[in-house]
Structure formats: structure tokens, C-alpha cells
Amino acid sequence: MLLLPLLLGVAASRPDPWHLALGGAALAGYLGSAALQAWARARRSPIYRAPIAVYGAAFAVLGLPLAWSFPALVLAVVVIAPAALVVFGGARPGTRRDLANSLAQVAQALVLVPAAAYVSSAFELARVVPATGVAAGYLIGTVLVVRSVLRERGNGAFAALSIAFHVVLAVLAALLLPAAYLPLAAALAIRALALPVVQRRLARARRPLRPIHVGMVEIVASITVVAIAFLAPL
Q1: Global model pTM greater than 0.85
Q2: How far apart, in whole angstroms, are the C-alpha atoms of residue 4 and residue 23?
Q3: What are the residue ranges spanned by the domains of the chain?
Q4: Could you give the CA distance from residue 132 to residue 61 in angstroms, rounded to a whole number?
């Protein structure tokens, strides 16, 4: 979830050594957030204190030089802070991770697209906006597809929502993006349609579709999105 928006931000600008610091800070922040959520779910078990401290320190070491050199990065708090409230609200003991929780994490990750372009000193709004839109479309779509075959498996209405979302993406790609993005959007829509069908057939054969299978599909899809972003710049 972190690498794709970072790379789309690079594709919308130019590679820069600061991207390594930004990626490292983002990873440290993500792992720190995951440790904090685990700590909350485990009713503040002391076992998570060391990981929280380590990831927090790593985030500070990498993030402070970034904030000093690129002060506008602090504006990311406008998105990250309210999204964090949703994420940690879903980390209470006994609370089920719902769709809002996943979408809040997507919102946090999307900050990396403009951030990556900004630290490259080649920020162009006309390129960053569509790159952020592509990242948003893919990541939101991934949340919907994955939930349609795992947490919401058997829920026909949710699968239909996922498919409809991807059809809309394909229409928007045809209208607003370079030609290379239409077959990409169409392929993502086909995957949104096919995975629930495969899941139902495997369930009848008592060979359920497992998370690792879905993950492999998403790895291929994300690599394709990144490749198109570099080969057909926005």
C-alpha cells in the first residue's frame, strides 16, 4: 500500500535521493501505527512497547530532516490525523475492522503521491493530481476487491459495488487519461468480476480462495499499475 503511491509520485516527477528518506519514514510510520494498533487490541500489553519505541525513533530520525528541508510536508497532517482517528478507533478490543478503517489507511497512503513529487523539487500540479487519482482508484478498488472475496465473501451486493466502482474507473480512464490506462482499468474491472466468481466455485469444491492467492493477484496488478505510470507518464 505504501510503495505504489510513492512510486506513482516518483513517476509524476523525477527520482531523487530524498525519496529514500520519505519511503523509510513512511515505512517506519506504518509499522509504528501497526504496533500501536496491536498494543491497543492487546489491552496495552507491554510486549509492544519496544517495537513502538523503535519505529517511533526511526520515524523521527528520517522524518525530522524531511520536515526541516521541506516544511510543506507538515500539511500532510491535515489528512493523516483525522484518518488516524478512524484507524485507531477500529483498534479497540473486540472491534471489527470495517470498510471505513481500510479507506482511512488508503487516505494516509495517498499522501505519499504529492509528497514524493514535492521532495523531488519537480512538483507539477497537472501531473500530481491525476497520479493521485490513479493511486486512489487502484487502492480503493483493491480494498473493495479483497473484501469482496474475504471478509464479505458471499455478499453479492458488496461484490456488485466493487464491480460497479471498477466500471466507473474504466469510464474515467477512457475520458481523462492517456490511452494506456484504459486497458489497465478494464483488466482491473475484469479481476473485480472474476475473483468473486472464482471464490464461489472454489468454495463449492471445498477449496477456498486463500489470502495468499488474492495477494498474488494484487502484486501483479500493482506492478502493472506502476509500470504503466512510468511508461505512459501523466
Answers
A1: yes
A2: 11
A3: 3-231
A4: 27
3-state helix, strand, coil in the chain (%, to 5): 80, 0, 20
Q: What angle do CA 50, 54, 56 make, to 5 degrees?
A: 115
Count of Cβ atoms closer than 10 Å to residue 127 Cβ: 17
The CA distance from 126 to 110, in Å, is 16
How far separated are the first and last CA of the chain, in Å rounded? 21
Per-position DSSP letters for 2-69, written without gaps between them: -HHHHHHHHHTS---THHHHHHHHHHHHHHHHHHHHHHHHTTS-GGGHHHHHHHHHHHHHHHHHHHHH
The one-digit pLDDT tens for each residue of the chain (234 residues) are 789 999 999 999 999 999 999 999 999 999 999 998 888 888 788 888 899 999 999 999 999 999 999 999 999 999 999 999 888 887 777 677 788 889 999 999 999 999 999 999 999 999 999 999 999 999 999 999 999 998 888 888 999 999 999 999 999 999 999 999 999 999 999 999 999 988 888 877 777 788 888 999 999 999 999 999 999 988
Distance, CA of 170 to CA of 175 (rounded, Å): 9
In terms of phi and psi (left: phi > 0; alpha: psi -120 to 50; beta: otherwise), the region of 43 is left
**H/E stretch holding 105:** helix 99-110
Residue 13, phi then psi, degrees to nearest 5: -140, -110
Q: Three cell numbers at 126?
A: 497537472
